[in-house]
UniProtKB/TrEMBL annotation:
It comes from Actinomadura rayongensis. SUPFAM superfamilies: GroES-like (SSF50129), NAD(P)-binding Rossmann-fold domains (SSF51735). The lineage of its organism: Bacteria, Bacillati, Actinomycetota, Actinomycetes, Streptosporangiales. SMART domains: PKS_ER (SM00829). GO terms for molecular function: oxidoreductase activity. This is Zinc-binding dehydrogenase. CDD domains: MDR_like_2. The keyword Phosphoprotein does not apply.
């Protein structure tokens, strides 16, 4: 099969399209023919070696965590899914013609493979962050960096639970945030005052998905670090906020957003798409950020 691999840490130029063996699913896993793969920030950070101290790479290495496609084989002990089913989920080395998934859900027919491939990591991260901050019906929550994948997912999941959401983004993405059900505000100096004005009442929780150095402002806004969480700012632990990096339940998160998407209550649009051979450009483009939606690689 064709797959993207790299044999050393470096920039996007180290990624190569190669021929390699098709993987086999272990017990509890499934193998899919990949139709599209989501591109996440962690893919480029891992490739560049930023995470080598606690997540070293064994070379040659594939890349990619999220994908959507058609099931071609199931491992022992797998139930509820069969060959030919259309699914999306998370696994390993998903920028390839075939990939193993370790957590997944059946794709709603109304959602394209390209869009579904961008759901898994944002959905799982959003669910985890909302759990840590105990966001519930009636709460007002601020999301810093709301127009990307995780922010888009967090808005819609929070809204589905009856929370009111304020999201920060560039002016160009304000209409997009409104379409998801959030109240948009600008990021930058004066954030606390703008959020307070938009809320008109206390802000109960805050999620930082951008890592833009706003944790002190978010603590001031909420009044306590106990209901502030970040997945992108390593200074968070020193400030007493929740700092969360490790995934917990991809299957549960994928099933949740599949249900929401099936009734038209969840979407993360494809903002940029690339061919498999252009995976390096896809990761580079994704790293620039400031988009409304997801960067994906489309295979078929």
């Amino acid at each position: 099969m064709k797959a993207i691999q790299y044999t050393e840490y470096g920039g996007p130029e180290v990624l190569r399209l190669v021929e390699t063996d098709t993987p086999t699913p272990a017990p509890g896993e499934i193998l899919i023919a990949v139709k599209a793969a989501g591109v996440n920030g962690i893919d480029g950070k891992t490739r560049a070696g930023y995470l080598r101290e606690f997540a070293p790479v064994t070379f040659p290495s594939g890349t990619g965590l999220d994908a959507a496609g058609t099931v071609v084989a199931v491992g022992d002990g797998v139930a509820g899914v069969a060959e030919g089913d259309e699914v999306f989920g998370s696994g390993r080395d998903t920028l390839a013609e075939y990939a193993v998934l370790t957590g997944w859900a059946v794709k709603p027919p109304s959602v394209s493979f390209a869009e579904a491939s961008g759901y898994p990591l944002p959905a799982e991260t959003a669910v985890r962050m909302l759990r840590l901050t105990e966001v519930k019906k009636g709460d007002t929550v601020l999301i810093s960096g709301a127009s990307g994948g995780v922010g888009s997912a967090a808005i819609q999941i929070a809204v589905s639970r009856g929370a009111r959401v304020i999201g920060t983004a560039s002016q160009a993405n304000h209409d997009y945030l409104r379409s998801l059900g959030a109240i948009p505000i600008r990021y930058g100096p004066g954030l606390v005052a703008r959020a307070q004005t938009a809320a008109g009442s206390p802000v109960d929780a805050a999620l930082d998905v951008a890592g833009s150095g706003v944790l002190p402002e978010l603590i001031e806004l909420v009044g306590t670090p106990a209901r502030v969480v970040t997945c992108a700012d390593f200074s968070g632990r020193g400030l007493g906020v929740h700092t969360t990096l490790a995934a917990e339940d991809y299957t549960g998160a994928c099933e949740l957003v599949a249900g929401l998407a099936a009734r038209g209550a969840f979407t993360i649009p494809v903002a940029r798409s690339f061919a498999l051979a252009d995976a390096g450009a896809a990761q580079e483009s994704n790293a620039r950020g400031h988009i409304a939606g997801r960067t994906v690689v489309v295979l078929g």
